[in-house]
Specification:
alpha/beta; Rossmann fold; 2 domains; six-stranded parallel sheet; globular; binds NADPH dihydro-nicotinamide-adenine-dinucleotide phosphate; binds 5,10-Methenyltetrahydrofolate; histidine biosynthesis; multifunctional enzyme; Aminoacid_DH-like_N_sf; EC 1.5.1.5; THF_DH/CycHdrlase
C-alpha cells in the first residue's frame, strides 16, 4: 500500500510559495494569527502554523486575547488588524468563545485576508467552484495530496465522512470541481459501511479515532485520514484504523501525523502568499 506522505505535497507547495514571494519586490507576506483563549488544540496548531510560515520565508504575528475579553472590545481590536495594511492575511481560531457570535467575525473578516475561508464571500466562491476564493486549508490539503500523487479524481466516487464547515462541506465542493462524484456522510447516514465501501477515494473527517476500519474500505481504494485525535497516551491517532488497511487491500492512504495536517499549514502559507501577491503583485506589475 502506497503511503501518501504530506511532506511531498508540502515541498511542492513550498516551491510555489517561494516563487510567489520572489515576485513581491522585497515585500515579506505577513499573517496575523488571532486567538481568543488558550485551548490546547489551538496552541499546538498555532505553533505548527508559526513554524511553517517562518520556514516558508514569511512573517506571522500572534495576536492572543484572554477568553474573558468582551465581544465589543475584541471586535474593535479585530477591526484594527482587519484594516492594518501591513497585514496581508488573517487566521482567526474558531470557534470563538461561547459569549461571542462567530458569524459577526465571519462577516467582518476581509475576504481577501481570510486565509482559512471562513467568510461567506469565500464560502460562496467555493460553492460556485470559482478559483479566486480561499477554501478552508484542510479541505484544500486533501485535494493537494491526491494531486501530488496523481490520484485520479475525475469520474471517481469520492465519499467524505463528515459535513463540517471546516472540512466535509468545503471538501465536497472541491471534489465536485475535480469532476468526482461526491457522497457526504454524517451521523444520520444509513448503512455507513456500505456507503464507504463504494468509495474509490474515502475521506475520514469525523473526529472519531479508528472509526474507519478495514471493512469500510473497498480493495484498491485510496484513503485520506483528516482525523486528529489524541489517544490515552497522548499519541496522535487518525479516524482510520491504519493496521486494517493492508488487509483491506487499500491502494494508498495518508498517515497521521505526517499526512493531511502537514499539508494544511502549507496550504495556509500558499493562501498568505496569494493574498500578498494580489495586493503587491498587482502594484509591481503596474510599476
Ligand atoms: N488535519 C487538519 O488540518 C485538521 C484536522 N481536523 C480533524 O478532522 C476531524 C473532523 O474535524 P471537524 O470537521 O472540525 O469535526 P466536527 O466535529 O465539526 O464534524 C465531524 C463530522 O463528522 C460526522 N460524524 C461524527 N461521527 C460520525 C459517525 N460515527 N458516523 C458518521 N459521521 C460522523 C459529524 O456528523 P453530524 O454532522 O451528523 O454531527 C460531523 O459532520 C477531527 O478529528 C479534527 O481534529 C480538523 C481540522 C483540520
Ligand atoms: N477553522 C479551522 N481550521 C483548521 O485548519 C483547524 C481548526 N479550525 N481547528 C483545529 C484544527 C487542527 N489543525 C491542525 C492543522 C495542522 C496540524 C499539523 O501540522 N499536524 C502535523 C504535525 C502534527 C504534530 O506532530 O504536531 C501532522 O499531522 O503531521 C495539526 C492540526 C487545523 N485545524
Amino acid at each position: 500500500m502506497l503511503v501518501l506522505k504530506g511532506s511531498e505535497a508540502a515541498a511542492r507547495i513550498k516551491k510555489e510559495v517561494q516563487e510567489m514571494v520572489e515576485g513581491l519586490g522585497g515585500h515579506v507576506p505577513t499573517a496575523a494569527i488571532v486567538r481568543v483563549g488558550e485551548r490546547p488544540d489551538d496552541l499546538s496548531y498555532e505553533r505548527n502554523v508559526m513554524k511553517k510560515i517562518a520556514s516558508f520565508g514569511m512573517e506571522a504575528r500572534s495576536f492572543a486575547f484572554p477568553e474573558s475579553i468582551r465581544e465589543g472590545e475584541f471586535q474593535a481590536e479585530f477591526q484594527k488588524i482587519n484594516d492594518d495594511p501591513s497585514i496581508d492575511g488573517i487566521l482567526l481560531f474558531c470557534p470563538l468563545p461561547r459569549h461571542m457570535n462567530g458569524r459577526t467575525f465571519e462577516e467582518l473578516i476581509r475576504p481577501e485576508k481570510d486565509l482559512d475561508g471562513i467568510s461567506p464571500v469565500n464560502r460562496a466562491r467555493i460553492f460556485a467552484g470559482e478559483k479566486d476564493g480561499f477554501a478552508p486549508c484542510t479541505a484544500e490539503a486533501v485535494i493537494e495530496i491526491l494531486k501530488t500523487y496523481q490520484i485520479p479524481m475525475e469520474g471517481k466516487r469520492a465519499v467524505v465522512v463528515g459535513r463540517s464547515m471546516v472540512v466535509g462541506r468545503p471538501l465536497s465542493m472541491l471534489f465536485l470541481k475535480e469532476n468526482a462524484t461526491v457522497t457526504v456522510c454524517h451521523t444520520k447516514t444509513a448503512d455507513l459501511k456500505a456507503v464507504c465501501r463504494e468509495a474509490d477515494i474515502l475521506v475520514a473527517a469525523a473526529g472519531k479515532a479508528g472509526m474507519i476500519s478495514g471493512e469500510f474500505v473497498k480493495p484498491g481504494a485510496v484513503v485520506a485520514d483528516v482525523g486528529i485525535n489524541v489517544d490515552e497516551n497522548g499519541a496522535l491517532k487518525g479516524d482510520v484504523e491504519w493496521d486494517g488497511l493492508e488487509a483491506a487491500a487499500a491502494a494508498a492512504a495518508t498517515p497521521v501525523p505526517g499526512g493531511v495536517g502537514s499539508v494544511t499549514t502549507a496550504v495556509l502559507c500558499r493562501h498568505l502568499a496569494e493574498a500578498a501577491m494580489r495586493k503587491y503583485g498587482a502594484e509591481q506589475a503596474q510599476n
